[in-house]
Amino acid sequence: MPEFYVKVGDGARFSKTVGEYDVYDFAGIPGDFSPNHVDKSYMQKSSYGRLQPHGTLLVGYMSTASTANTRPGADETPVSLGYDRVRVVGPIYFGDTITVDYRITAVNPERSRATANVEIRNRNDELVSVGTHIPKWVKNARL
User: Fold this and answer.
1) Which residues are registered as beta bridge partners of 99?
2) Beta strands, E only, the chain
3) SS3 for 96?
4) pLDDT (tens digit per residue) in 37-92
5) In contact, 132 and 83? CB cutoff 8 Å
6) Engineering a disulfide at 116: which of 50, 101, 109, 133 sits with its beta carbon 3.0 to 4.6 angstroms away?
């Protein structure tokens, strides 16, 4: 059997400073203008004291890391089957620099799939979000 596109232990890292523009721009895509994300005076009254980005924006950052690792093959293209057990386990604030760590934990060449653990940490190396990604490689069309 030929070598699969990824192997257990392969990974990628992606870092990004979560800016105000990122969150406001992202809010407009799904129309999620929850005060948690866009109303400073509302969030100042909360125990967090300030605005937080959308959890789904964090999944977007997970996706960025996945594409750096799920390499295409000659006859197949990697696609995402989704993210399981995604959790936000700590606060993230505007201006935080986050680092996404993406690591392949299992490979199933017979099903053309892999599994990866994804962790996001803040600038203090505190875990703030986790998830499991399932990439699959699909056959390319014959043109």
Assistant:
1) 15, 121
2) 11-17, 76-88, 97-108, 113-121, 127-139
3) coil
4) 999 999 999 999 999 999 999 999 999 999 988 777 778 889 999 999 999 999 99
5) yes
6) 133
